[in-house]
TrEMBL record:
<dbReference type="Pfam" id="PF01746">
    <property type="entry name" value="tRNA_m1G_MT"/>
</dbReference>
<keyword id="KW-0819">tRNA processing</keyword>
<comment type="function">
    <text>Specifically methylates guanosine-37 in various tRNAs.</text>
</comment>
<dbReference type="InterPro" id="IPR002649">
    <property type="entry name" value="tRNA_m1G_MeTrfase_TrmD"/>
</dbReference>
<feature type="domain" description="tRNA methyltransferase TRMD/TRM10-type">
    <location>
        <begin position="1"/>
        <end position="226"/>
    </location>
</feature>
<protein>
    <recommendedName>
        <fullName>tRNA (guanine-N(1)-)-methyltransferase</fullName>
        <ecNumber>2.1.1.228</ecNumber>
    </recommendedName>
</protein>
<comment type="similarity">
    <text>Belongs to the RNA methyltransferase TrmD family.</text>
</comment>
<keyword id="KW-0489">Methyltransferase</keyword>
<keyword id="KW-0963">Cytoplasm</keyword>
<dbReference type="InterPro" id="IPR029028">
    <property type="entry name" value="Alpha/beta_knot_MTases"/>
</dbReference>
<dbReference type="InterPro" id="IPR016009">
    <property type="entry name" value="tRNA_MeTrfase_TRMD/TRM10"/>
</dbReference>
<dbReference type="InterPro" id="IPR023148">
    <property type="entry name" value="tRNA_m1G_MeTrfase_C_sf"/>
</dbReference>
<keyword id="KW-0808">Transferase</keyword>
<keyword id="KW-0949">S-adenosyl-L-methionine</keyword>
<feature type="binding site">
    <location>
        <begin position="135"/>
        <end position="140"/>
    </location>
    <ligand>
        <name>S-adenosyl-L-methionine</name>
    </ligand>
</feature>
<comment type="subunit">
    <text>Homodimer.</text>
</comment>
<feature type="binding site">
    <location>
        <position position="111"/>
    </location>
    <ligand>
        <name>S-adenosyl-L-methionine</name>
    </ligand>
</feature>
Amino acid sequence: MRIDVFSIFPDYLTPLDLSLIGKARRTGLLDLTVHDLRDFTHDRHRTVDDAPAGGGAGMVMKPEPWAEALETLAQGEARPTLLVPSPSGKPFTQAMARELARQDWLAFACGRYEGIDERVYEHAATLMPVQPFSLGDYVLNGGEVAVLAVVEAVARLIPGVIGNAESLVEESHEDGLLEYPVYTKPAVWQDREVPPVLMSGHHAQIDRWRRDERLRRTARRRPDLIGVLDPEGTDKNDRAVLLDEGWEPAGSRFQPVTDPVAD
Ligand code: ADE
């Protein structure tokens, strides 16, 4: 996969030299280039920002350097999908990571300050698909940290980037549930034991225990995920655990158990 990242702080992206992503770059699985947006300015101060039209706080990224930078991606036949980190983008999910991992070419435009002049999005959309995305409902100082997160989430799904492909299947969010708790040796540590079923060697019981823990943990930490679970994909045991956590099937959804109305 080819990835191009544009930023006024290219050094912010140096963690992409490390660990499995760094290795994927060195072995050629990932062809990732970080570009300095200021290389697409032509004034002595390499200016990338200006005052907001209409007034207000902060500065806005100027359209000209962005247009020139993004036009370099539209020279040949092939086009990348342009991902723009922004707190007003579509929430980034594992499903999006899976979708992006199938593409040949991604580009990222890291905004800073109060954001990028809106006309850049319109211009870019005439050249390539554009997808603003958000990491979550909070505000970062710029898009670089969001790009680190998305590149890691996507690149680890490219075949060959992670040695143990099996570990990709049993993960939080792969099937709408959070991951089960994990333990290692020693069997007893500071008077706390590893749940005995995990030491039993009984694989069916271990699988069942793990599934129960995933359901309980998801119900407690992320009730929104239980609310979109399809009862069709659950068995009797699942439904008993969910009932214990206060959820009952209602048609094609689960809903919080409704107390019978007292009269
Ligand atoms: N840039 C600033 N805040 C952001 C967020 N929450 N997600 C993605 N990019 C951002």
